[in-house]
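Contributing new complexes? Match this layout with 2-acetamido-2-deoxy-beta-D-glucopyranose.
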Amino acid sequence: MRGTFILSLFSLALSANAVISKSKLTTYVDVLALDNSFGPVKEAYWTGYPHHRRTPFAVSPDGKSAYLAYLDSSETDVHVQKVNPKTFKATGTTVTVTGGKEAGGLVAHNDGFAVLVNEAMPSGTTNAPPSNTPVPALYRYTDGKQTWKTWLGGPGVHDSEGRAASPDMNGDLVYSEKAGLYGAYFVVTDYSGDASGHYGDSIEYVNKNGKLVTIDGATSAWGCSHNTGIAFEAADAAPFASICAEDQGAIWLNTKGQGMMNTGVKISNENTTNGASGEPMGGMSGSYSALARFADTSRYIFAWVSRGAKDVTENEWMGDGYTNVQNRTNGRNVAFSLFSDKYTKVGAQATSKVGAEDGDSQVNWITSGTNDCSNAHVAAFGPVNAVVTWEEISNPTCDFIAMGCRGKFAGTHFQEVNKKGEKVGVSFSSDDIYVAGDMVTFNEGLNTAKICWPYVSMDWDLSQAVGYGGSSSTTKKMSFACLNRL
Ligand SMILES: *[C@@H]1O[C@H](CO)[C@@H](O)[C@H](O)[C@H]1NC(C)=O
Ligand SMILES: *[C@@H]1O[C@H](CO)[C@@H](O)[C@H](O)[C@H]1NC(C)=O
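Output block (do not edit by hand):
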């Protein structure tokens, strides 16, 4: 009897009928009481438009503990709150990383967590960055106590190639149990060496004991220039799967090479202006849950927003083989791309053919309207299905080329997709749920998995820049939403 029951649930999970819908979205509004207050709005680079300030969220491999990290509303000190993964209520005491300037990524373990922050180096540190500019650091806590801390920039980290700081923590932290490695991919600005004063990105690996390890073909002191978008996901061995949005005209799968060279795979052509390419992975406070691995496979899925590409010209600065494009649309649409493994895109690369009119024929679009789409994220339910989410603005005003837009918020949308690159069912939307932290897959046994994420329950005003009346309130309550397929 029992065997039959399990089998029928299993076939239900695999059947086409099991599709996400609004009725499968469960909310836990204001469920998590925080000990400290949190400012949920972050001003975007260049535009000042409101973004959700990221609250990293992670669940341990045994499913017994969850953690939420958030920046104190004073904008100094990162707090990590243990969360009951069934009720989303607080449990245990808050751990505070004193001096942390942003919570940049979180990994949950059965006995604790690791958190990526940026913070000023202790005064008197030789060769520290000027003006107390924060430097990325990885902390490991075991049973509530700090076990180690490892600097991922500053003096002693690739000194000869140029020392790095991270005034803004934009990037992500992942962990592979098989590789026994943490990987962090983040935006940096160098303060010594050839790239001094320039923005780029860095990939660093740390072993289980907190030792920074330099891995040939994986560690990177300087990869993509002026990076405003990172997507990063663990693999069974280094290099981990990585994607960057650079300031020259492309989004690269750069697992091979870690840079912005055409030794990588060109996922997309994007119009770039003033260092930006349309906040493809969320811009400021983004760069999480943009790349997800299908469970028990080598496959990955990447979601981003794009204005499309036309009129391909040579990029004279980069030289032969590199291109610039014009954007096709005013607002941004949502797209996704599949990879059969961490190095290989399914289907064609984006064109680099100078003179081509069409620069985006390889893109698998989810939306095609005139609304502006932003804040795209993706998470996989299991080996086959994933959900892509984004926010929309109706009748958008896009004042700044290659940046975000403003206008009336028109909901957070959800679309199921599968490993074949197909949309499954129809999208649906919610006006009062947002995605503001990592989308985490909760394995619930043989039959199903659900995907949950944190957000702050609030009015979401995307009509104006933060300084002009956009919400700047703080909160001591966090909400969660979960999406089931069954
Ligand atoms: C991006 O598009 C704008 C016009 O919308 C254009 O002025 C600019 O040159 C384009 N960027 C590149 C790198 O071609
Ligand atoms: C290109 O995008 C900019 C905003 O980045 C917008 O102002 C412009 O109208 C767009 N061009 C087209 C052809 O839609």
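Reviewers usually confirm one structural detail per submission. For this one: The chain has a mean pLDDT of 94.
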